[in-house]
């Protein structure tokens, strides 16, 4: 299995979080983070930050005024 | 158009409405403008609905309509409130990582400083940082990081090659992290 550097590992962490990492690349990343505490912590950090951003987004709810407006609009179609 | 089409359109719209609202709100930065933009987008989408061959593509298709309407109608209005220029936020060849900032000097008095930092950030601070991103990065970051859309879908909405989506996401993420760092310093989190 190919060994990867920390900078390559960081690139792959973002691809991993986007669900875009191929299985061989993931195995190489897993192998790297098993021995690299910094990259292991980095995965945890980027994952937590990503979840935080998604939670912020989900807190924004569609206002009732818009739902009613769209419902009225749909009735005219 | 028939009743069947109308029902199908209504269902697809219902599924996409939340993401349409969040994206429109982040773009226009104004609730009323976001609602107007969505209403206009719905009208346009209904007119063009018969041309949409694959209904599985409804979400990127209608988000693309929102994006186009924003560019043609609302962006001029936004220019007055344009945030800082990219070069003022992050140098051309500069990269930025919150993780590296937090870990190397062990700034926070905590066993897990980087996670404590994230937890200390409020929704308002994150929203403010996002709103300061230059537009070309903001839309990509919003779609891929906040809305979790795949690269392909973001590329279709923005009519950009996937490679450009990836590179804008990389830089946009770095600028966002730098902005969060600045916000945190300003608010005394670090």
Topology, please?
The complex is a heterodimer of chains A (77) and B (190).
Chain A: H1 6-17, H2 23-35, H3 37-59, H4 64-76
Helix pairs in contact in A: 1-2, 1-3, 2-3
Chain B: H1 3-28, H2 31-48, H3 58-79, H4 86-89, H5 98-103, H6 113-120, H7 123-132, H8 135-146, H9 151-158, H10 162-186
Helix pairs in contact in B: 1-2, 1-3, 2-3, 3-9, 7-10, 8-10, 9-10
Walk me through the structure.
The complex is a heterodimer of chains A (77) and B (190). Chain A is an all-alpha fold. Helices cover 79% and strands 0% of the residues of chain A. Chain A has one domain (6-76). In chain A, helix 1 packs parallel to helix 3 and helix 2 crosses helix 3 (37-59). Chain A is elongated, with a radius of gyration of 20 Å. The mean pLDDT of chain A is 92. Chain B is mainly α. Chain B folds into 2 domains: 3-79, RNA polymerase sigma factor, region 2, helix turn helix motif (Rna Polymerase Sigma Factor, Chain: A), CATH 1.10.1740.10; 86-186, Arc Repressor Mutant, subunit A (Orthogonal Bundle), CATH 1.10.10. In chain B, 73% of the residues lie in helices and 0% in strands. In chain B, helix 1 (3-28) runs antiparallel to helix 2 and helix 3 (58-79) crosses helix 9. The termini of chain B are far apart. The A-B interface holds A 10, 14, 18-20, 38, 41-42, 44-46, 48-50, 52-57, 59-63, 65-67, 69-70, 73-74, 77 and B 1, 6, 9-10, 13, 17-18, 21-22, 25, 31, 35, 38-39, 42-43, 46, 97-99, 102-103, 114-115, 118-119, 121, 123, 126-127, 144-148, 150-151, 169-170, 173, 177.
């Amino acid at each position: 299995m190919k060994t990867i550097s920390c900078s390559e590992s960081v690139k792959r962490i973002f691809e991993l979080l986007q669900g875009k990492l191929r299985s061989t690349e993931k195995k190489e990343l897993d192998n790297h983070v098993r021995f690299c505490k910094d990259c292991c912590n980095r995965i945890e950090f980027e994952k937590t930050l990503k979840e935080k951003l998604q939670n912020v987004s989900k807190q924004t709810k569609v206002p009732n005024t818009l739902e009613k407006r769209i419902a009225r609009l749909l009735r005219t179609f | 158009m028939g009743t069947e089409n109308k029902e199908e359109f209504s269902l697809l719209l219902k599924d996409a409405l939340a993401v349409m609202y969040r994206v429109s709100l982040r773009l226009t930065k104004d609730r009323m403008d976001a609602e107007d933009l969505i209403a206009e987008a719905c009208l346009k989408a209904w007119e063009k609905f018969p041309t949409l061959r694959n209904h599985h593509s409804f979400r990127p298709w209608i988000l693309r309509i929102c994006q186009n309407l924003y560019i043609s109608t609302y962006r001029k209005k936004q220019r007055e409130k344009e945030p800082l220029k990219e070069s003022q936020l992050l140098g051309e060849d500069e990269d930025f990582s919150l993780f590296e900032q937090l870990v190397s000097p062990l700034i926070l008095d905590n066993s897990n400083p980087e996670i404590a930092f994230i937890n200390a950030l409020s929704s308002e601070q994150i929203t403010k940082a996002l709103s300061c991103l230059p537009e070309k990065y903001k839309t990509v970051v919003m779609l891929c990081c906040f809305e979790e859309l795949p690269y392909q879908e973001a590329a279709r909405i923005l009519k950009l090659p996937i490679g450009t989506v990836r590179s804008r996401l990389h830089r946009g993420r770095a600028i966002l992290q730098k902005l969060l760092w600045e916000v945190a310093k300003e608010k005394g989190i670090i």
